[in-house]
Amino acid sequence: MSRYLVPLSTLLTLAIALNAQPVAAARLNVVFILADDLGWGEVGCYGQKKIPTPNIDRLAAQGMRFTQHYSGAPVCAPSRCVLLTGKHLGHAEVRGNLQAQTRFPEFKEGQYPLSEQAVTFAQIFQKAGYATGAMGKWGLGPVGSTGDPSRKGFDLFFGYNCQAVAHSFYPAHLWRNAEKITINAQPVPGHAKQPDGEVKLEDWIGETYAPTLLIAEAENFIAANADKPFFLYLPFIEPHVAIHPPRESVEKFPAEWDAEVYRGENGYLPHPRPRAGYGAMINDLDGYVGRVLRALDKAGVAERTLVVFTSDNGSTHPGRADSRFHVGGAAPPFFNSTAGLRGYKGSVYEGGLRVPMIARLPGRIPAGTVNDTPGYFADWFPTLCEAAGLKPPEGLDGESLWPVLTGKSKTVTSRKPMIWVFPEYGGQVAVRLGDYKLVRQNLKTKSPGAWEVYDLSKDSGETTNLAGAQGELIRQAEELLRREVSENSVFPVPIPGLNTAAR
Length: 503
What we know:
Elements: H1 2-25, E1 29-35, H2 54-61, E2 64-66, E3 69-70, H3 76-85, H4 121-127, E4 131-137, E5 156-160, E6 173-176, E7 179-182, H5 210-224, E8 230-235, H6 247-250, H7 274-299, E9 305-311, H8 332-335, H9 350-353, E10 357-360, E11 369-371, E12 375-376, H10 380-388, H11 402-405, E13 418-422, E14 428-433, E15 436-440, E16 452-455, H12 471-484
Parallel strand pairs: 1-8, 1-9, 2-11, 3-12, 4-5, 4-8
Antiparallel strand pairs: 2-10, 5-6, 6-7, 9-10, 13-14, 14-15, 15-16
Helix pairs in contact: 5-7
């Protein structure tokens, strides 16, 4: 009998191991795709007529599209902070775009870092045994700082650590975790002017186009981790200016779109065909989404992968030097990028904050559905944790959207007020209470603006200020801000009703 004991125990061990593999493989994967400065109306399923976005539209047809979803902030770094930490701007550590060097002179690139104590949802997934990766733009702390992505839950980070470096699509280097990788011996700067002479596309084209490396890395990550649960964060850099897409992308669009050449008057790079170039960046972004979806299909994991697509803030705002162009030569008016919403990037009006948001999970999220539930970036931490069956930390500001996404609830019945406390662009605050949006601007100037109140259920364009008849609502908003905004001396903004700017 003894000669059979070893083989039987070995078989039992193998059986247990084999049975364990499907259990691990069945866990939910997450792919979170974040566009950069993509406006609410810049993709087809949100009304865009000029720029084809078939892959994003297909994602919407296969999932749920939200019509009242908001970013964490109206600019890049604080929006990403809210997203990753689940804290609204009243509690977020990073509330503006501040270079790390202003407070930490030892760092030559990168933005103000998340602290050691800050917890991201990537850390929760990593601790739960997920493979975690990020490819794209970081902006929450230099390599080697407390905000280094490798210290915030990512096994692999590949891309731009610094937002300023990401102004160029042909940079000198990208980062693979702590390794600085040269990709262009002769990089193309993200900023230049050409007041005279012919503006040529080829003058601003380098050897290695960074976005092609980012999407290839994302595909490799999916293939390499198909047999285990994974979390993949893809903060792509399109369509943030500079307008810098390859010639073949630009030439897909009509020559008659561009009667005027952009010479860099409003910052970033000159471009001979700025409208075509801007459209090309969004079309290229759509192509990356398609490649991600195909990679999931090829790996055989699409049916158990939650895919989320959204943007970090609204479309690029007007420039100051030349009113014909927005910053970087972008053309949001030509493309109707805000689809009638007021304001652009940098503003707490709807056009600066309301963003596309689509989620797909076959068999769980009803296909082809549209939902008007208000939600914002602070909601994603609890939502992703509930979706994956993970326990979120205490003290998050958002609400889980998972019951809405899966059709168990039509809306978030316990919706907390949504809060934005933004120290830049003059100092601004906004609060959404039910259907009402309350806004104050220029809080850091000598002439602070008065409260403005809009009923978004009737006035999504924020055209009719109801402040005169909404004194009680204003009182509620001020009390909420007094209660919900913690002190932050690095990113101060005066809070209405308080005699302090250290908020």
